[in-house]
Design goal:
This protein is an all-alpha fold and 364 residues long. Helix content is 73%, strand content 3%. It is built from 14 helices and two strands. The protein has a two-stranded antiparallel ribbon with strand order 1-2. α3 crosses α4, α4 crosses α9 and α4 packs across α13. The longest helix is centred in the middle third of the chain and has 30 residues. The protein is globular and about 80 Å long.
């Protein structure tokens, strides 16, 4: 006679965490997810806006790669996004959830514009650029250090703290714009002095600087003592204390670095691109950088690819909207679907699905 235990059937499947997955299998899963996302988006384009999938894919490509000018703009936008993503990465590896990159970059941009406004024409351009560079890094560092000190000493919530400081930074920029524009327009206009030199192309220098920062950040995180300490603090606060790491010092030092890189990004945006400052100078890149860093698993080398892909989707979606004269809501939906597939595929990288064996009829 069968016991009750023997009659209990196994579930159809169960989920188990993978102990290890080879890197090439992980990337195959990601590529399959991206391919599936594009296929679904092509089908939706035919159903919703009546565009053939080939026309849809062509518009996506033309948005970023349709001309030499678009290619340079594509690389420039990816470089700026990558620079800010690199800035937040050391803090994230330490599990300090710094979502204040938007404000830190904006404060760096404000410091750069202030130097251009007050010192433009009074200093040689070379010296002015040095002053702008130093000012942006110092102000960005200070803006990043404030929440770090509160976290290290009083264990405040860094997420809320840095988020609120974004709004404070926006208000400070608005205040200075009112001072600098007596006519009340709050539009500063293009400042004539303190522009980055053009080397071959107006965007090339910014791209080269970002590539250098990415290489330096990779070496810093994976081959330096500071990078090791960041990893240990991120893995276990107690372990870090046990082996003699000064956790408070690491938190403050890392946020100084993050703030400085955000300030540098603000310097590049103002001196190399906009030559002015507004409350929308950063344009949400500080928040997009969080996604770039997370998708790349905080690896600077992978982050370069992630930045290129995110900008490709953004510019390609804008081209789709323009070519087919559709509401911006449709391109946003397309971008959301693709990102959903990319984020969702991480589940299959981290976990595996084991189906019930048929050998024993599903019985235990």
């Amino acid at each position: 006679m069968e016991t009750t235990e023997n009659k209990v059937r196994e579930p159809l499947f169960h989920i188990a965490k993978r102990a290890y997955i080879p890197w090439y299998k992980a990337w195959c899963i990601r590529l399959i997810a991206i391919l599936a996302a594009f296929i679904i988006c092509g089908i939706l384009s035919f159903i919703v806006i009546g565009a053939s999938p080939l026309d849809f894919y062509s518009a996506l490509l033309k948005g970023s790669l349709g001309s030499q000018r678009k290619i340079w703009k594509f690389l420039k936008d990816a470089a700026v996004l990558l620079c800010i993503s690199l800035a937040v990465t050391p803090a994230f590896r330490m599990k300090f959830w710094n979502i204040g990159a938007e404000g830190q970059t904006l404060m760096g941009a404000l410091a750069t514009a202030a130097c251009m406004f007050y010192l433009g024409g009074k200093l040689p351009d070379a010296l002015l650029l040095v002053v702008m560079f130093v000012s942006a890094i110092v102000v960005g560092s200070i803006w990043g250090t404030i929440p770090a000190i509160f976290k290290a000493i009083w264990n405040t919530n860094e997420t809320l703290f840095t988020l609120m400081m974004n709004y404070v930074a926006t208000c400070i920029v608005s205040y200075f714009l009112i001072i600098w524009t007596p006519n009340g327009s709050s539009s500063l206009g293009v400042l004539p002095d303190g522009h980055l030199p053009i080397i071959g192309n107006e965007y090339l220098l910014i791209i080269l600087i970002t590539v250098f920062i990415a290489i330096a950040m990779y070496i810093y995180l994976y081959y330096s003592k500071h990078g090791y300490e960041i990893s240990v603090v991120g893995e276990s606060y107690k372990t870090a204390c046990y082996i003699g790491i000064d956790v408070k010092k690491v938190i403050i030092r890392t946020m100084i670095l993050s703030g400085a890189l955000c300030g540098l990004a603000g310097f590049l945006i103002v001196s190399g691109l906009d030559h002015s400052v507004t409350t929308e100078t950063v344009g949400g890149r500080g928040f997009t950088a969080i996604m770039v860093s997370w998708l790349a698993k905080f690896n600077p080398a992978v982050m370069a690819l992630t930045s290129l892909f995110i900008v490709f989707l953004s510019q390609g979606s804008a081209q789709v909207s323009q070519n087919f004269d559709v509401s911006p809501a449709f391109p946003d939906m397309i971008t959301g679907i693709i990102l959903f597939f990319i984020i969702g595929c991480e589940f299959f990288i981290q976990y595996k699905i084991n189906f019930r064996s048929r050998k024993n009829g599903g019985k235990k």
